[in-house]
Amino acid sequence: MVFQSHALRTHMNVFKNLAFGLKLRRLPAPQIKEKVEAVLELVGLAGYGTRMTGQLSGGQQQRVALARSLVLEPKILLLDEPFASLDQHLRERLREEVRDIQQRLKITTLFVTHGQDEALSMADRIVVMANGKTEQIDRPDVVYRDPKTPFVAGFIGTMNLIEGEVRDGNFVRAGLTVPLPVTDGPAILAIRPESLDLTVSETPRASVHRVTDYGSHGLVDLDLADGTRLKSMVAHPDLFRAGQGVDLSPRAVTVYRNNQQIYRS
After folding, report:
1. Cβ contacts of 131 within 8 Å, gap of 6 or more
2. Which structural domain range is residue 49 located in?
3. Rounded to an integer, what distance in angstroms lies between the CA atom of residue 117 and that of residue 256?
4. CATH code at 206?
5. Theoretical Cys-Cys bridge with 193: which of 9, 53, 129, 233, CB 3.0 to 4.6 Å?
């Protein structure tokens, strides 16, 4: 198991931290040395065996914690939010390295995380849980594109969740009308920002609240007539400005009722 807090033995150097479990198994010293040096090379810390753990950076300490588990050649590797205390850049680099190591060693790994990006980038299968209950188990791409409950839709990635009603075959909320082939009644409409197209309009259904340019794309925050906030991902953020009236055209939607998916386009 790899802990969020590293849980390294601070009075031991790196080599002794890794060798501790092997000594408990009563392996001979030459074999312990060979295994420890091999796993240090695997995690990119060759030559660090004599260093004290307090001399290492946060990322290096987490690699030692990972190596300490890998040196025991486990059948199952458990990781409890191991990157939560690290900065974003280091988290991204380490999760790529851990994924590569896991693929090379073919170890079944259970990775607990609240980070959606970590789950989507590292997992073969994602289990989304809420209040101790399983909401959905599926491949990352399926969980993202076909969330089975409103909780999954809102938890994985960015999602516009709009509560409203279906009347005469149309979802209605504060001027937003979307044709749907579902029975009348209360419903939750889910639209990904990348699936919500915008056009400047003289008879707008929403107004631009804020435009954020990320370089590769833009994110437009929108307000419906009742103040409901939506997000749209656009290729050309320079075409929009705060206060502008826009029309909305969803290219793909998911509809929920009674906490279950009833339609997806």
Report:
1. none
2. 14-124
3. 24
4. 2.40.50.140
5. 233
